[in-house]
Design a protein that fits this description.
Layout (H helix, E strand, L loop, with lengths): L1 H10 L4 H46 L31 H10 L10 H12 L4 E9 L13 E9 L10 H7 L3 H11 L8 H12 L2 H8 L4
Antiparallel strand pairs: 1-2
Length: 224
């Protein structure tokens, strides 16, 4: 009886085609997902390359963001932004590591509020970190994967970027803080019309003491 049963089983049709049809949607989905992920990874890599290029180009050829001077409170912190080579002041891992090495030997030894305010203002204006944000989108064929985001974003930064002495004008920082009263006296009493023979001396004093090119421009325009 076993022999006819085996023959009957051999003659019966298999279910391979049905099983293949049932698994076909899964195969299609996985294949499409693999293509989608490859496009996403490629776009991510291109976005990171673009962000790195923007950052290094800005670091070598761009200028630092303006210093936080008049009207700026040290406790206000550093703002954020997403632009071409964003360069915030007073931020970055290198500055965070440097601060504990400097503070114990400097500002920690004084209780003068003006000295501490001057320190906070200088530190808040130190050029520290370059960062940039970039994003790209890619297209996929069909609408099966529309539920997945098609935008790749990248952030790139570096600390301790090259900067020169004029990127941190200590006199301008001082005039916005502990020396503001003295600076205001100079600006109010010497900023207007003066005698012709005294004008070169006045201009030289403001220029040398306060780096006041911006003030002189305001005076020339009648704003001072």
């Amino acid at each position: 009886m076993n022999r006819p049963t085996r023959i009957a089983r051999r003659a019966a049709r298999g279910n391979a085609l049905i099983e293949f049809i049932l698994t076909l949607p899964i195969v299609i989905f996985i294949t499409g997902l693999a293509i989608y992920m490859s496009l996403a990874l490629l776009t991510k890599q291109e976005t990171l390359i673009e962000a790195r290029h923007q950052l290094w180009h800005a670091a070598q050829h761009g200028s630092w963001s303006p210093m936080k001077l008049e009207g700026w409170a040290p406790a206000a912190g550093v703002g954020t932004g997403e632009d071409f080579g964003h360069r915030p002041r007073g931020s970055g891992e290198e500055l965070d590591r440097l601060r504990p090495d400097i503070e114990p030997e400097t500002i920690a030894r004084t209780s003068d509020p003006k000295a501490r305010d001057y320190w906070d203002r200088i530190w808040g204006n130190l050029p520290g970190r370059h960062d940039t944000h970039a994003s790209r989108s890619f297209e996929t064929q069909g609408s099966l994967w529309n539920f997945i985001n098609r935008t790749a974003e990248a952030v790139h930064w570096r600390d301790s970027s090259p900067w020169h002495w004029y990127h941190l004008d200590a006199w301008r920082v001082a005039r916005s803080g502990p020396c503001k009263v003295i600076f205001d006296s100079f600006a109010e009493n010497l900023g207007g019309d003066v005698a012709d023979h005294f004008r070169p001396t006045r201009d030289e004093i403001i220029k040398r003491w306060w780096h006041g090119g911006d003030v002189l421009e305001d005076v020339a325009e009648g704003k001072g």
